[in-house]
Amino acid sequence: MEDRIGQILIAEPFMEDPNFKKAVVLICDYEVDHGTVGFILNKPIDMQVDQLLADFPEFDVEVYFGGPVGHDTIHYVHTVGHILDGSVPIRDGLYWGGDFEQLKFLITSELITKKDIKFFIGYSGWSPGQLDQELELGSWVVDEMDNNYLLNIPSDRLWKSSLQNKSDAFGIIAEIPDRVSWN
């Protein structure tokens, strides 16, 4: 069994599900018996995290649609696991979650900036075996996560950039227009 934690799923160009159209999903938890959890990296919503949470410090950082599951939950992926207790390692230099009260303190103290963290409403979830079936059907292109995808590549370019970084053949696929009639 391949460990998918820290990999990304890049939606194939013709995916019809509006939740995942041109999505890039970071896998944060993958267990054969329990399923998979990930977050869509490139679907910002028009809201700041401090607008969503009443007791959150002022913090000018955008929130992203993490996926169609658990819209009443806030998650965060970050690069500061060395100072945030309870952070779950995803891959070298990349972490999920951590002590929420400590997070607020570190933000107030300016030890965590918007260059260190991305927030998500909801998550993407697959039941046991579901993701493997979708992979067999060709719904997703799998690649290794590049930490630049989290914070340094603009959301509107991430899907195309991640396909182009995969290979020349995928770079050509990234150029396919949404509607073939536009060609």
Structural features, described:
The structure is a single chain. With 183 residues, the protein is α+β, with helices and mostly antiparallel strands. The chain has a single domain, classed as VC0467-like, CATH 3.40.1740. 24% of the residues lie in helices and 33% in strands. The protein has 6 helices and 10 strands. Strands 1, 2, 3, 4, 5, 6, 7, 8, 9 and 10 form a 10-stranded mixed β-sheet that branches. Helix 5 packs antiparallel against helix 6. The longest helix is centred in the last third of the chain and has 12 residues. It is globular, with a radius of gyration of 17 Å. 31% of the residues are buried.
Summarize the structure.
The protein has 183 residues and is an alpha+beta fold. The chain has a single domain (7-182), classed as VC0467-like (3-Layer(aba) Sandwich). Helices cover 24% and strands 33% of the residues.
Oligomer: single chain
Number of strands: 10
The CATH superfamily bears the name: VC0467-like
Level-1 CATH class name = Alpha Beta
Largest sheet: 10 strands, mixed
Q: How helix-rich are the residues, as a percent range? A: 10-25%
What is the CATH topology? VC0467-like
Helix-strand category? alpha+beta
Number of discrete helical segments: 6
Mass-distribution shape: globular
Give the averaged pLDDT, no decimals: 89
Strand content: 25-35%
Order of helices and strands: EEEEHEEEEHEHEHHH
The figure for the number of domains is 1
Question: Roughly how many Å is the radius of gyration?
Answer: 17 Å
The assigned CATH architecture is 3-Layer(aba) Sandwich
Q: Would you identify the regions where 5 or more consecutive residues have pLDDT less than 50?
A: none
N- to C-terminal distance: 40 Å
